[in-house]
TrEMBL record:
Keywords: Cell outer membrane, Membrane, Receptor, Signal, TonB box, Transmembrane, Transmembrane beta strand, Transmembrane helix, Transport. PANTHER family: HEMOGLOBIN AND HEMOGLOBIN-HAPTOGLOBIN-BINDING PROTEIN 1-RELATED, TONB-DEPENDENT OUTER MEMBRANE RECEPTOR. Residues 63-165 form the TonB-dependent receptor plug domain. GO terms for cellular component: cell outer membrane. One of its GO terms (biological process) is siderophore transmembrane transport. Pfam families: Plug (PF07715), TonB_dep_Rec_b-barrel (PF00593). It comes from Desulfonema limicola. GO terms for molecular function: siderophore uptake transmembrane transporter activity. This is TonB-dependent receptor-like superfamily protein. Belongs to the TonB-dependent receptor family. It is a multi-pass membrane protein.
Length: 684
């Protein structure tokens, strides 16, 4: 019988043989990039958006071996998107929930399921899957484009490229040779920000630097628990515990730099410092203030070398550091994450340019310090009848490392392209895993594209999973996509993507209520989008997302009660509860009108619908629902308003001032009301 214990060894050997074979074979007829990219980057006589994460080289989203989208700088500026969440919420499949602590992303019914990359460097956290820089923590002023892959991407990008990938591509000196400055003001809240972008193109080398800042009152909801932990091993005295106050001002600072030389050496860096203050309200009408600071930094060095006219080698090294400083009422917690990453990637054109092999080896090492592990549901402890007990909080340190070997091969047969990829990940702390991807793309004419794709991926455990059960099976997903696109001209375009996904061994996380038991869920859905331009100055766009989820309830084991017996011992009792899976809204709709009445004015109106949602959270006694809501946003840009190269942008969100409720963390909260933002930009 075949011994599964050695599966990863055999697969590693197969991948090594594939890599070696590709190096020594191939017919030297065409230059690798010309044989693929030049044809892919053109469609119906127009330049398409460039994508780099589908096969690790530049190509068009239309022809890429993936269900792909690109949001260009021009597109997200015209729609008034100054944060990543605002840019993504216009893309089919994405729902950006707005709980108290910031954006919680849902993709195709699965929360916290996308791998987020900044210039191909992972900026996600292993301490908690719910820490995301989707709001002002990541400024878009220095971003060139946003690349999106829908479906598992673990073969080329490793663990956590789960339901998909988002890659933030920063600007370079070749994108802007000069200086751009900007200031903004937003109301209500008296929020304000400023930035400066500086680029220089010297021909053989170029450089870019961006510095931005934003501050304001993001949450003015009053809270009533002022003190709890106190200075002893018991809760603070009742007379000191309660009162009324409001969260302080939030602030965000970011610096981005990039240097390139002769298209073979690229160095990029990003430094951030931010502080977000917010109020959390529980079902028991208890509310408290939390602040979260996430100073972080990354540096990436990439070198590319052409071996010959057929093949290239690319070497990448990166370091990412993040310190999470969280204050919960009067208790301060500090965590630290360091990630070291190294990769050698090889690509080669074979068989007269009709085939492309990509393979590589990578190493990742993570160091986690003071990851918080809660035992107990915080809102229960805040009640006035609790005089003696504090929730148990332990902090754990751990290190992990990961070796990976991967390859992907694509081959074109006339107007058909097929591809297959495999990756083997060898972990020191949890199970080894193998990921697969395969697909077929058929373009009967330049107007049509049909793609059928299948892939698998898994997600590495977060801190509490490792602490509680190191033997747990890793959460994994398999996804089948069918995409059909039709683009007969610049005026018309229609697209459809149907998908099926299955989750296995997934675990839901609540910061104060523990983990759910491993479970499985199944998803089916459809994403439909289209655009029509009756004139060059007028464009209509629409997209519809439908999601259906089925599967058993999520089961939790909760700490029900803690008390001190007559002998002074702490006694704990537990209970099991089950809750439906939270897949977010089942329907999302966008209708967008882009109007350019004159050359220097453009206006963008977005009308959106978000379906009803249930508030599902651990320890909830009932399931509150928020009804579906229609909202309207408008953004207008006036160019050369005072002097040449000076732009004024005016954005108004929720222009009808619609009052609605949306699920928070433990209770429904009031949705964002009408707000306006003014941005003034100047190119020097």
């Amino acid at each position: 019988m075949f011994n599964l214990k050695y599966t990863h060894i055999y697969l590693s050997g197969i991948l090594t043989i594939c890599l070696f074979t590709a190096v020594i074979t191939g017919t030297p007829v065409l230059y690798a990039e010309n044989s693929h990219d030049d044809t892919m980057l053109m469609f119906v006589g127009e330049n398409l958006e460039v994508l780099t994460i589908a096969s690790r080289r530049e190509e068009s989203a239309w022809q890429a071996p993936a269900v792909a989208h690109v949001i260009t700088k021009k597109a997200f500026q015209e729609r008034g998107a100054d944060t990543l969440s605002k840019a993504l919420e216009t893309i089919p499949g994405f729902y950006m929930a707005k709980p108290e602590w910031g954006t919680k992303p849902y993709f195709r019914g699965i929360p916290d399921s996308m791998l987020l990359l900044y210039d191909t460097v992972s900026v996600t956290s292993d301490i908690s899957k719910s820490i995301h820089p989707f709001d002002h923590e990541l400024s878009l002023v220095s971003v060139k484009r946003i690349e999106i892959i829908k479906g598992p991407g673990s073969v080329l990008w490793g663990p956590d490229a789960f339901a998909g990938i988002i890659n933030i591509v920063p600007m370079t000196g070749k994108d802007m040779n000069g200086v751009e400055t900007g200031i903004l003001y937003q109301t209500p809240g008296n929020n304000a920000g400023t930035y400066i972008n500086m680029g220089y193109d010297a021909g053989r080398w170029d450089s870019f630097l961006s510095i931005s800042g934003y501050a304001g009152k993001e949450d003015d909801n009053e809270y009533n628990v002022l003190k709890f932990w106190g200075d002893t091993d018991k809760p603070a005295d009742i007379n000191e515990r309660y009162g009324f106050d409001n969260p302080e001002t939030s602030r965000y600072i970011e610096a981005v730099g990039r240097f390139s030389f002769d298209d073979w050496l690229n160095i990029s860096t990003r430094l951030t410092d931010n502080k977000k203050a917010y109020t959390i309200t529980s079902e028991e009408d208890m509310s408290w203030c939390e602040t979260r600071e996430n100073p972080s930094g990354l540096i990436k060095i990439e070198a590319k070398k052409a071996i010959n006219h057929l093949s290239h080698v690319r070497m990448t090294g990166s370091f990412f550091h993040m310190e999470t400083q969280q204050q919960i009422i009067d208790r301060k917690l500090k965590q630290r994450e360091n990630e070291f990453y190294g990769e050698v990637l090889y690509d080669r054109s074979v068989l007269s340019g009709s085939g492309l092999f990509t393979g590589g080896v990578s190493y990742r090492e993570k160091h986690i310090k003071n990851a918080p592990i809660w035992d107990g549901y915080l809102p229960d402890y805040l009640k006035s009848e609790n005089l003696f007990l504090l929730p148990i909080l332990t902090e754990t340190n751990y290190n992990t490392n990961l070796w990976s070997l991967f390859c992907q091969y694509s081959h074109r047969f006339g107007n058909t392209e097929a591809w297959f990829g495999i990756r083997n990940d060898n972990h020191d702390s949890y199970q080894d895993r193998t990921s697969f991807s395969t697909g077929l793309s058929w373009s009967p004419s330049s107007e049509w594209i049909i793609k059928l794709l299948y892939g698998t991926a898994y997600r590495t455990p977060f801190a509490k999973q490792l602490q509680e059960n190191e033997k747990t099976d890793l959460e994994n997903i398999e996804t089948l996509n069918l995409q059909i696109g039709w683009e007969p001209s610049w005026q018309w375009g229609l697209g459809f993507c149907g998908y099926w996904s299955r989750l296995e061994d997934h675990v839901m996380e609540d910061p104060y209520a523990g983990l759910s038991k491993p479970n499985h869920q199944e998803f089916t859905g459809a994403e439909i989008q289209g655009h029509y331009s009756p004139f060059r100055f007028l464009k209509f766009e629409t997209n519809l997302t439908l999601i259906n989820n089925k599967g058993p309830n999520e089961e939790y084991t909760f700490l029900k009660e803690t008390y001190i017996d007559s002998s002074g011992n702490e006694i704990r009792t537990y209970e099991d509860r089950s809750y439906p899976y939270d897949s977010g809204p089942g329907a999302l709709l966008d209708f967008i009108i882009n109007w350019k009445p004159v050359k220097k004015i453009s206006s963008n109106l977005r009308i959106s619908y978000t379906g009803s949602r249930q508030l599902i959270h651990p320890r909830g006694q009932s399931f509150m629902s928020s009804s579906g809501v229609w909202l309207a946003d408008i953004n207008t840009i006036i160019r050369d308003i005072i002097m040449p190269d000076t732009d004024l942008e005016i954005s108004i969100r929720n222009i009808t001032d619609r009052e609605y409720e949306t699920p928070g963390i433990y209770s429904t909260i009031e949705g964002e009301g009408i707000n306006a933002q003014i941005v003034l930009r100047k190119n020097w």
